[in-house]
Amino acid sequence: METLLMRELTGQTRVLGILADPIAQVKAPQLINRIAAERGVDAVMVPFHVSAEDLPKLVAGLHVLQSFDGAIVTVPHKTSMIAHCDHLSDRAAAVGAVNVIRREADGRLFGDALDGIGFLAGLRASGIEVAGREIYLAGAGGAANAIAFALAESGARGLTIANRTRSKANDLVSRLMAHFPLLPVRIGTRDPSGHDIIVNGTSLGMKPDDSLPLDVEKLASSMVVCEVVMEPEETALLAAARRQGCRIHLGTPMLMNQVELMADFFRVR
Amino acid sequence: METLLMRELTGQTRVLGILADPIAQVKAPQLINRIAAERGVDAVMVPFHVSAEDLPKLVAGLHVLQSFDGAIVTVPHKTSMIAHCDHLSDRAAAVGAVNVIRREADGRLFGDALDGIGFLAGLRASGIEVAGREIYLAGAGGAANAIAFALAESGARGLTIANRTRSKANDLVSRLMAHFPLLPVRIGTRDPSGHDIIVNGTSLGMKPDDSLPLDVEKLASSMVVCEVVMEPEETALLAAARRQGCRIHLGTPMLMNQVELMADFFRVR
Fold first, then answer.
1. How many CA atoms lie within 13 A of B175 on its CB side?
2. Is B9 within 8 Å of A30 when comparing Cβ atoms?
3. Given this model, what pLDDT does residue A1 score?
4. N or C end of chain B: which has fewer CB within 10 A?
5. E strand or H helix at B152, and its extent?
6. In this complex, is the C-beta atom of A125 within 8 Å of any C-beta atom belonging to chain B?
7. What integer is the mean pLDDT of A230-243?
8. Intra-chain end-to-end CA distance of chain A, in Å
9. Which residues of A touch B65 (CB under 8 A)?
10. DSSP assignments along chain A, one per residue
11. Chain A, 38-97: which have a CB under 8 Å from a chain B CB?
12. Mean pLDDT of all residues belonging to chain B
């Protein structure tokens, strides 16, 4: 158990949440609450555990919760939350997913997507260059959408999207092509061969019995293999990549590089 | 600003709330969070500021919030919350108001009323005896209902209920007479003459421009004058009572004597 010298919560404390299912593994409350303490802001983030089915009811409640300032939105709510936002950033609208919402004083919810920027900042901080590289991305959900758009903006040479549900991959590829007509974008299989950077943008790897997001036998030692899953830190994919001699990039830097942006977004400043 | 060495909040922290409007003045988060820290329980209470009009939407959201364990319910929600509870304690059903709700694992909300017990425990701790005394109670809302039933159970000789809205006073008196057929219960005016213990059970006194809950010129020095309002600590009523030479009893003991009961109710143990 970690303890922390916190500002005592009062009736004036602003409330932040993280919407997730499952939720026990999330790390954002610790990070955001440390930033609030460092910045001397009277705000606290608590877990809001809600199922996909029940999300609309909870969000209707958050609209009228006057002490609520915003929430991180994560698996499985990133895409479905779009429908509950009253307005969106251009980025979130293009991506078709949000990972943060903010409650305005009049109760309206504004959604943005900071995960793509956060993922790229994490790569850059580790010295992994995207420009000119062929990139393979597993997934077409909320996180994968945000990462795909951020990668496309950052000068990747080409981008392959592989997803179990083919229609979601087609949809993501169409939207990428509409926004980035000069970028080669294709639908991929489970085989990552021929790419420089491999990214798992699915939630596969969170649970011990999850299947692998791609065919790990086809990984080559020249590849950099990146995760969005944060818990466990070394997923089965990363363990396999390490065995194949690949450089690996953990899921945590994406969050660590985002939390300051998120705190600013929530007006924790 | 008070600081506190708190357990760091995580995705596994259980969330408690306090439902109120206004909310800035509430003191329960500080008290409950200290108890959670002392007991080593991973739970935190945060302010849930919601208007009377918006309460149904927020409660529908709390029904599906799996990390939520319960809330304190205070002004102006104590009576209206009854309709949103799936089951009630006998005490809360008799009183017609709740001041705590607990979320069961299946999402059902259970309501109880601990304020009457808390008020009496506060009187007892100050050595103020209720048995055999004539009592004047201003108010017929949630807190006043809870206090009236607790006073009736504690051997008061007689009980006078005075409320601006006469129909609410009539309703409370009828319910008291049904539960305590041998106790003299009457409707009163703004004049507290002829009573031993005077209780303000309304929220009048919270705001600087509130009118007084009763006619303070009729207070006599033999009377004990008690508040439920906690902020300001000395309300205009108590100041007037002090000037008349009365013994006064603050609003805070009612909460202080309740918080351990509330923590138990929320399973902070």
1. 20
2. yes
3. 56
4. N
5. helix B142-153
6. no
7. 96
8. 27
9. 48-50, 58, 61
10. --EEEEEPP-TT-EEEEEEESS-TT--HHHHHHHHHHHHT--EEEEEEE--TTTHHHHHHHHHT-TTEEEEEE-TT-TTGGGGG-SEE-HHHHHHT--SEEEE-TTS-EEEE--HHHHHHHHHHHTT---TT-EEEEE--SHHHHHHHHHHHHTT-SEEEEE-SSHHHHHHHHHHHHHH-TTS-EEE--S--TT-SEEEE-SSTTSSTTPPPSS-GGG--TT-EEEE---SSSS-HHHHHHHHTT-EEE-SHHHHHTTHHHHHHHTT--
11. 42, 44-51, 54, 57-67
12. 95
**What percentage of chain A carries pLDDT values higher than 70?**
98
Catalytic residue among A78, A168, A207, A218: A78
With residue B109 as reference, give the H or E element that holds it: strand B109-112
Split at pLDDT 50, 70, 90, the class of A4 is low
Give the tokens for residue A145: 């959408």
Q: Is A168 a catalytic residue?
A: no
Of A204, A161, A219, residue with least CA distance to A186: A161
Residue with tokens 């956060």: A118
Q: Name which of A139, A129, A119 is nearest A188 in CA terms.
A: A139
The two beta strands, B43-49 and B87-88, are unpaired
CATH topology of domain B14-114+259-265: Rossmann fold (3.40.50)
Domain spanning B116-254 has what CATH number? 3.40.50.720
pLDDT tens-place string over residues B87-111: 999 889 999 889 999 999 999 999 9
ipTM of the modeled complex: 0.82
Interface check A254 vs B, CB under 8 A: no
Position A255 scores a pLDDT of 87
pLDDT number for residue B142: 82
Give the pair of three-digit tokens for residue B141: 């809302």
| Highest mean pLDDT out of A117-121, A255-259, B221-225 | B221-225
Q: Of A2-6, A147-151, B60-64, B87-91, which gets the smallest average pLDDT?
A: A2-6
Quick one: pLDDT at residue A5?
A: 66
Same fold: A14-114+258-265 with A116-254: yes
Asked if residue B86 lies in contact with residue B110, where contact means CB atoms within 8 angstroms, the answer is: yes
In chain B, where the domains are located: 14-114+259-265, 116-254
